[in-house]
Amino acid sequence: MRKETILNACVLLGLLAVPLWALSVDEPFIITLATKAVIFAIAGVGLNFALGLGGLVSLGHAAFFGIGGYTMGILASHAQNYAPLMEWPLVIEGTKSMPVIWLFAVLFSSLAALVIGALSLRTSGVYFIMITLAFGQMLFFFMISWPAYGGEDGLVIYVRNGFPGLNTLDPIQFFGICFAILCIVLFLVSRMARSSFGLALSGARQNEERMQAVGMVPYRLYLIAFTISGAITGLSGALFADLNRFVSPTMFSWQTSGEIMIFIILGGTGRLFGPVVGAAVFILLEHMLGGLSEFWHVYLGAILLGVVLFARGGLIHLVAGREVAHD
Amino acid sequence: MSLVLLIEQVLNGLQFGVMLFLMAAGLTLIFGVMGLINLAHGSFYMIGAFAAAATAAATGSFLLALAASLVAAAVAGAIVEMTVIRRLYNRDHLDQVLATFALILIFSEGTRWLFGSFPLFLDIPDYLAGPISLPFGIQYPQYRLAIIAVGLVVAGGLFALIAKTRIGIQIRAGESDREMIAALGVDISNLYTFVFALGAALAGIAGALIGAIQSVQVGMGEPVLILAFVVIVIGGIGSIKGALLGALLVGLTDTLAGFLLPNAFGLVMDPAAASAVGSSLASMSIYVLMAGVLLFRPTGLFGSS
């Protein structure tokens, strides 16, 4: 087995072992931290699909994270207030069921990604970075000034949404749900990366002209990748909202986009498990440095700067060495 | 809604646009000459505002405060360029985005560490306080009018610097072919430090000027930074002329949409709903403008593909 495969297995086992250990010593807070890491990892895997595989540096993925979050917030708040979303022409009720919420989160965030991607992908390079950032901000300001769903204050959901057959209020069971989703997403992404679509996308990242010459349309490949990427990040947003039982426009803020990108860079760009490692390390840093100093972002900034300047390829590169193209 | 109110809003839009230009000019120069996307530009805006507020509190002089903002931002810019930014010129945009994002974290939290979380205040000097009477019976704050004037003077100076001086020639040459001007004996790394410090100084003075209208606080730079991005995307990255046009367009759109849209919806809806719908659409208006420009010109108004 390759070093990276072994490392990936260790990371997954570690992510599973920490909350189980926390359960045995009765530390629910650590389970919540691990759940947060898993949810951030899903968001990172989503962005990494566009960024690592397609080379699309999107600084606006907070938009999809937020749309996922607000899908949960809006559906659940209507359900908890017993007020239907719409009464005419047909009655649409809110819902407290996780699978239904996930379905709509994926639907809406992929639709948003399709529209934002279709516009943004007309440009490339630094324009693309700034435009995705601007679209993210557009939704951020819209959510702040739209009073129907809490505006700047956000929405509080009193009880975590339900999943058939499980008690989601139990931290370890909710962790289990998120962890299972992470595994499914990782499996699907690794399959897609090796499919003919993934190979073509990777080719378009490396050399657009060549892909055009063999009859591919890079724009279409990028748009599909961006849409899938947005959908995954949207799903993680719905989970994040359920973890906190609270959604606010902060989910749309550009710092969120930056943080999702940090997960990828800390772990390693383009690596399947890069965002998983990155998110876990980020949560660890947040917890440890946050205990050291109120101003822990200074240290985070310094570490990030060090990784970008001196440790190219992220932590996975440090441990497992260069990327190998094929297994 | 009267004509006088409309003219006042147009002046507000101009003032906002001129300030955005000071931010956007530095960004677009840095991108045009060095090919660097700099997210930390908003930090220089914040540094300028804090330096001005601290100086004004210590000396009581507004002019000294403005000078301090220029110097502090330029020095911070030069130091950052020599220690960090220099290593990023040959990297891809992703590395640049992340490294400068890291710089934002360091600058913002560092400033919070030094000055605390509470906003500082910078007072408008007495000789610029109060309104001034303009034709048609318009009363307009003198200070805002002064900002428009300062902004236009700085913009004119910048155009003269780029068009007429030797260093301007080098900057323009650096935009088109950096290897060639290095081969011709121009010290390219000094030139880069100068351009970066110049951009930082422009952002710093913008921060100080706005700091007297709004409060001076950590994180004040980022919203302006993002608007400045919108400006240079509309104007075309690397073009100073585009930055000026884009800044005025964004400034006017933002101000006028915030003023006109709630009024326009008020004609067809009840006032409360109109102001809610109008203001949420107004907050999106500049992004709609940007999307519209990009649909027709993907590289901005003055951009070259």
UniProtKB/TrEMBL annotation, chain A:
UniProt keyword list: Cell membrane, Membrane, Transmembrane, Transmembrane helix
Q: In terms of domain of life, where is this protein from?
A: Bacteria
| Cellular localisation | Cell membrane
InterPro entries associated with the record: ABC_transp_permease, LivM-like
Keyword DNA repair recorded? no
The residues that cross the membrane are 38-57, 62-80, 100-119, 126-149, 169-189, 219-240, 260-285, 297-320
What name does the UniProt record give this protein? Branched-chain amino acid ABC transporter permease
Q: Which PANTHER family match?
A: ABC TRANSPORTER ATP-BINDING PROTEIN, HIGH-AFFINITY BRANCHED-CHAIN AMINO ACID TRANSPORT SYSTEM PERMEASE
How does the entry describe its membrane topology?
Answer: Multi-pass membrane protein
Automatic annotation (TrEMBL), chain B:
Instruction: Give the principal location in a single coarse category.
Output: membrane
Which parts pass through the membrane?
A: 16-37, 44-64, 70-89, 101-122, 142-163, 184-210, 216-235, 242-261, 273-296
One Pfam family this chain carries?
BPD_transp_2
Membrane topology note:
Multi-pass membrane protein
Q: Which UniProt keywords apply?
A: Amino-acid transport, Cell membrane, Membrane, Transmembrane, Transmembrane helix, Transport
Q: Which InterPro entries match?
A: ABC_transp_permease, BCAA_transport_permease
Where does it localize? Cell membrane
The family this protein is said to belong to: Belongs to the binding-protein-dependent transport system permease family. LivHM subfamily.
- Listed PANTHER family: ABC TRANSPORTER ATP-BINDING PROTEIN, BRANCHED-CHAIN AMINO ACID TRANSPORT SYSTEM PERMEASE PROTEIN LIVH
The name this protein goes by in its record = Branched-chain amino acid ABC transporter permease
